[in-house]
Amino acid sequence: MAKKSFQELINSPGMPVLVDFYADWCGPCKAMSPVVQQVASQFNGKLKVVKVNIDSNQAAASQFRVQGVPTFILFHKGQQVWRQSGAMPAQQLTQVIQQYV
């Protein structure tokens, strides 16, 4: 199966897409990993989660001006509707996503 382009991934029709920009060397990213998995399973079938390693996907990181990791960007119908950098509680992430699912 061909890898989808980043643009194809975020233009997912019908469901919002949460992009998690991370790096393997980033402590807060590692701390957020179980939170992101929890949110992904909570919204299973209603939300697409895409993890983007900024070290191996520098073009996507620079396209969205990702300055620090983790950075979360929520896309709805291809449009960026929310963005936040840094670790956050699962409840906060859930509240944001609930507005779009």
Automatic annotation (TrEMBL):
Pfam families: Thioredoxin (PF00085). The keyword Glycoprotein does not apply. Keywords: Disulfide bond, Electron transport, Redox-active center, Transport. The keyword Transferase does not apply. Residues 1-101 form the Thioredoxin domain. InterPro entries: Thioredoxin, Thioredoxin-like_sf, Thioredoxin_CS, Thioredoxin_domain. Belongs to the thioredoxin family. PANTHER family: GEO12009P1 (PTHR45663:SF11). This is Thioredoxin. It comes from Pontibacter anaerobius.
